[in-house]
Amino acid sequence: MFQHLSFLHDTFPSGFLWSSGTSAFQTEGAWDQEGKGPSIWDHFIHSSVNANSSARTANVASDSYTRWEEDVEALELLGVRSYSFSLSWPRLFPDGHAGSQPNAAAVDHYSRLIERLLQSKIEPIVTIHHWDLPQVLQENYGGWKNHTLVGLFEEYAAFCFRTFGGRVRYWLTMHNPYLVAVHGYGTGLHAPGERGGPSGSLIVAHNLIRAHAKAWHTYNTHFRPTQKGKVSIALGTHWVEPRRGQATADNIELCQKSIEAVLGWFAHPIFSDGDYPVSLKTKHGATMPIFTPEEKLWVQKTADFFSLSFGPNNLRLGQNLIQYGQTVTPDLRRVLSWIKLEYGNPRVLVAEGGWFSEAKVSCIAVFSFPAIKFDGVQVFGYSAWSLVDAFEWNYGYAVRRGLFYIDFSQQNRTRAPKTSAQYYQRIIADNGFLSDETFGEVKGRFPCDFHWGVADSTLQVKNRKTDFIVEMSDNGADIVFCCCCRSTSTLSHHSLLTPVSTAGT
């Protein structure tokens, strides 16, 4: 499978864009300060909990709107070459209309952030829209169900290009539109909480694709000649493959359809022929929106590189898309190889990599390594998600994905590096995985009856600056792997630690 293990001790391509990322809603806080209007996520959360309960809302979150300089200092500590963050549409335009006067405080805030990043030689990767649609657009138009938002998004994107584009080389129009369409307007699990089913999701996805394409054409025509930047869209996916011993032709075809139903839904129109995958059109029939011949030509090739979001939200959703004989796995290498084969080997930015267990952030980077070295995938950057602990959407603060720990009970929201941050810092400094001479070479064989496997359900245990992974073995014993000292023991060895999150359940 891996050919050999030399990739564990080698470097990434020169100039590789090491990064970390955040989104505005999850980290900024200051939800109603300095002219910001409410987003659909503000409304969604405040409608279900007491709005004064900061433990259940993103009213303060990581306080990054105020403590943005501390975030930059965290980036400097990591040594990253880029920072992926999003702009808040309702902060810039509380009424949602970019034709109106922008909120000057918001413009100044993002300008200061970009300038400070550039001073620190950190490349800004800017997402125009990461789920936080202005609530007023939901109320007045029905949100992304309404084609009117395609034009409104184009105006908003044009403002962002015009205002910040002279200092930004990499743009992402939106983040993981699949989850917006499916969970926001289909199942109702995400904001705005609508349960329109598959038909509602299809309409929303159609408008999101057209909004992205319109923004790309606006940049390509009016801004690219002078700004020389690149524009893409961050697409999310799971990975599904046949179970061992069940790789029949039918089973492989089902896996292909599963990926086409998630990643291909958006990637095929944009990176291929401007239309939806045949399997999707067959599945949904007359309810599937149609691109006209003119629209197909207009939508296709509207991305300058492939931007991939590979995180836990899509993995969990993928569990519902498989049938007997398949399994969902966090195999980034195979996803990247699929993208190469399906879409003609585009340059790829992993815009979101990382899982609910923070100690696995670096492990996901490992899986992109063989894709580059052995499979020839043109990965040019990797963003470990996320920079700091944040408000994790439906999970609130029960889940921690940050490289830097934040105690949300404390007003100062101090950032403290975890061992995952220290390990990522080392990878960046080495630009890869250099041989560790402090560990001697060990040769030998495992017992014949040794049970090889991978654990999907892990319990994150934390002592502020130290990460542990706890795995439940078949006999019920808790096995602890310490990411700091790389030791293993039973749970009693670290019995004073407090569990803070659960993954894979």
UniProtKB/TrEMBL annotation:
Signal peptide: none annotated. GO terms for biological process: carbohydrate metabolic process. Pfam families: Glyco_hydro_1 (PF00232). GO terms for molecular function: hydrolase activity, hydrolyzing O-glycosyl compounds. Gene3D superfamilies: Glycosidases. InterPro entries: GH, GH_1_N_CS, Glyco_hydro_1. Belongs to the glycosyl hydrolase 1 family. This is Klotho beta. It comes from Echeneis naucrates (Live sharksucker).
